């Protein structure tokens, strides 16, 4: 009986493996550095600032422990702004989905000037928010705005409506503008998915006697489910932290009726110069957003 | 004892080499030094209409011609946006060299936090005797120390009137009291024209105009000792008047700020207006058809025994303490008052920013402006009102400088009070109590 000599068992990685490992670390290092600089550092800085009472222009202050968080949880303004944020997010997101899916279905049909229409529909999304808000403020203007003028011309209203200065008009106004600005994102994503749905599914549905509505519910919508889930989660995150559109349209008013959490953080940090309290609010906001993010991450894992 | 055996000059080899190296460095030094001496001064201002920018360019060009190694870069900010921009600049240490046209109460807040360079040198360079009496007082927050000075005066709550509409309505004199104003706007409103463009938005204009309204009722926001005094009968009266005016304002006044209010009057959509003298140049440029039918007056008060109260934000010039090239910066700050450029700056919006130097106000070159000549009476009214003007940083001659005024205005707490009572119809007592508490918190924070 003979035995074949073998190498003694290795206790650690080979030189080649160690070399690959070092190379891997080297290659990933820039990403880690950038990620740390733009994500980890601001995050830790916000948490650090939130336990201090800090005057914004000097960034000097004193340690106050959990006082800022206690004020956040007991003060009421955080909760009312959170409610406003949720109303805005749900309202504008719902319209974005409805308009976006509707227009994507339309643009999926063989209509005249389809290519031109597909290009033009992206226009609001590419337009600068400042420009978009200026246009909409002009449209909403009570004295020379086209919207009031048009409604009065067709006899729907007798007097100009106060679109942005009273409730519920102000919230409806910002929700409408938000939906107009961001629905093209939904159109792009849904249209891309629509073009990949196999035609034979529709043929089978037709043979089974399904009409257009039944085909939409039984074929199109199930096929869109995965992409819609991702769109809803992404847009929910983006709408939740929307700042410029709301700030420029209403400034959070009337009173605080359209003051979302982003506007609250801004006001605390720069109007009241209370950077510590602003940081506490932003940490609170981040925790709420974490729910969306976890859902998104879980969803994308399932997809992969 | 060992004697050094070096050269007779006393220079050893090391010294010679060092000297050669120094000479070599010196040969290239002029260019480098020259390059180092080239400096850029950054100038921030929220006032940046095209005409004002043209005036600034003149001032910059004249200064750069005198100082060839200096470049001045103008950067815009805004009335609603300067607070965050300044906060970010101070926090980062990347501050502009000079800031103009911010309200005095903003400067006093920065001063109280040690962020502003004393301005005494600049005032000396300009010549303190040239300023109108009392112009610099509001900037003397600590005795003998000036945080800045005014680059102009303004009468922010001047009441503008359409004389043709007054005539049509049978109104023979400018309203002096609130009752007269309410009666006048009631008569003039109609035919697509509203009575007034008072602001009810959640912004600084609503806060500033309503602070004036409280004073026009005989009240105040802070007592002379800077105790919160807003919860008073006078504020209730002011809210009642302001609420009564709502029916005479356009529907969108609930979101009006400076630009909207100005445009409403200039466009001819309202019979009265409330703004500085910028109305004059805008009417001439944008709606000359009403140019012969406008006049102005101080805003009415609750009764004739209450003196008018004009909101003058004392548009400032100040230098952040962390600014670089301090000597050049101070020279430029003083140069802003050089007659040629200063007069062009004032002419950029005649009557909007009024001169603070008596030598300029009497200068024929200043008086030669066609708008100032056409509206001499109106400019005189605004000049007199602004000279007796106040703001939240200094509510009366008896008041101490209020270094928290900027934060009170920027917090929007006063505008919110107006909206809660007038738009939301909330209980006045509760809102006033809440407002007083919030102002107290800001004042003590």
From TrEMBL, chain A:
Keyword line: Cell membrane, Membrane, Sugar transport, Transmembrane, Transmembrane helix, Transport
Domain of life from the UniProt record: Bacteria
Regions that span the bilayer: 23-56, 76-107, 119-139, 170-192, 245-266, 278-297
Chief site of localization: membrane
Family matches, as Pfam families: BPD_transp_1
Domain ABC transmembrane type-1: 82-296
GO process annotations (BP): transmembrane transport
An annotated GO cellular component: plasma membrane
CDD domains, sorted: TM_PBP2
Keyword Chaperone among record annotations: no
InterPro entries named among the record's database cross-references: MetI-like (IPR000515), MetI-like_sf (IPR035906), UgpAE/MalFG_permease (IPR050809)
SUPFAM superfamilies per record: MetI-like
Cell location: Cell membrane
Keyword Transmembrane helix: yes
Membrane topology: Multi-pass membrane protein
PROSITE patterns listed in its UniProt record: ABC_TM1
Assigned protein family: Belongs to the binding-protein-dependent transport system permease family.
Protein name: Multiple sugar transport system permease protein
Organism expressing this protein natively: Pontivivens marinum
Automatic annotation (TrEMBL), chain B:
Keyword Transport assigned: yes
Main location class: periplasm
GO cellular component, one term: periplasmic space
Keyword Coiled coil in record: no
PROSITE patterns per record: TAT
Keywords on record: Sugar transport, Transport
Ranges annotated as spanning the membrane: none
Subcellular location(s) of the protein: Periplasm
Record Pfam families: SBP_bac_1
Family affiliation: Belongs to the bacterial solute-binding protein 1 family.
Protein name in UniProt: Multiple sugar transport system substrate-binding protein
Organism: Pontivivens marinum
Phylogenetic placement of the source organism: Bacteria, Pseudomonadati, Pseudomonadota, Alphaproteobacteria, Rhodobacterales
